[in-house]
Amino acid sequence: MSFKNQKGRESMITIKSPREIDEMAKSGAILAGMHRGLREIIKPGMSSWEIEEFARNYIESHDAICEQIGFEGYEYATCVSVNDEICHGFPRKNLILKDGDLIKVDTVVNYHGAMSDSCWSYVVGKSTPEIDRLMEVTKKALYLGIDQAQVGNRIGDIGAAIQKYTEEENGYGDVRDFIGHGIGPTMHESPNVPHYGVAGKGLRLREGMTITIEPMINTGTYEITMDDPSGWVARTADGGLSCQFEHTIVITKDGPKILTSQDPEMDAKYLWKPAE
Predict the structure, then answer these.
(1) Which residues contact 73 (CB under 8 A, 6 or more apart)?
(2) Cis status, amide bond into 264, omega within 30 of 0
(3) CB-CB contact of 103 with 242 (8 Å)
(4) Per-residue pLDDT tens for 54-101?
(5) Could you say which residues bind substrate here (predicted)?
């Protein structure tokens, strides 16, 4: 679940033990399995509420908790954001998906106290070249950010890599108002992880830190508007499309490791190996 950027908000950062990371990896495997399942069911004519039902049933059937439910009054297991909705869209029974819709499904899994957080983007039915390019750039931006999550690097290195690629090289808008964050043992922790910034600046990364990297990239401006009266749903200010991909990762001496991978073959160099 995306974190609202609150400048100056920092608290104690928790360093995870290998045992704790193993548990977070189990949580992440459940979340990844949910996203793989969504690939098979998302189609034109279904409601976004059916995504909510699938996700909730999948998570609970794997002995885990939908951590978003009740968070600051949020009522749903998922955020299902469509087209110009950047994040925190409500799943709705009356929102019927159609060909060419770009949807983002974001949720947090609590497995016996271990947290994982991942958002993935999907096209409903037939895609378009505009959507394909936006999704390709956003996913690559995620991995460029992950590659910078090295022991001794700084938070600004992550954001600078994402911003350079998305804005300078591709002309997209890189959202500032919602950012990544530390995670575990609660949903949102320090440090803040913006997807923009200056290389070499910010907090130094340490082994055992667990964070989310979750760029939200728009076809036009990075600026947003907030839906009233809910105060939850963020949209692009110009009505353009928005895309998001997110992984929970751990920083190790051997480089960043993804705890929410959906594709072990693609993510081979990033996979966490549990202790023997």
Answers:
(1) none
(2) no
(3) no
(4) 999 999 999 999 999 999 999 999 999 999 999 999 999 999 999 999
(5) 88, 188
Say if CB 251 and CB 13 are below 8 A apart. Answer: no
pLDDT digits (tens, 9 = 90+) for 29-58: 999 999 999 999 999 999 999 999 999 999
Ramachandran region of residue 63, left (φ > 0), alpha (ψ -120 to 50) or beta? left
Task: Using alpha carbons, list the distances in angstroms from residue 37 to 69, 129, 250.
Answer: 21, 25, 24
Binding positions are 88, 106, 117, 181, 188, 214, 246
Contacts of 164 (CB under 8 A, 6+ apart): none
- Could you tell me which residues are annotated as the binding site for a divalent metal cation? 106, 117, 181, 214, 246
- Distances, alpha carbon 169 to alpha carbons 5, 149, 221, in Å: 24, 21, 15
Tokens describing residue 141: 């931006």
Beta bridge partners of 122: 103
d(CA 234, CA 240): 12
Encoded tokens for 22: 């193993």
Q: Which residues are annotated as a binding site for substrate?
A: 88, 188
Helix (H) or strand (E) holding 255: strand 255-258
3-state SS record for 94-160: CCECCCCCEEEEEEEEEECCEEEEEEEEEECCCCCHHHHHHHHHHHHHHHHHHHCCCCCCEHHHHHH
CA angle 238, 239, 245 (to 5 degrees): 105
The domains found in the chain, sorted by start residue, are: 3-262 (3.90.230.10)
Q: How long a stretch of residues is the chain?
A: 276
Residue located via tokens 């609660």:
186
| Secondary structure (3-state) at 81 | strand
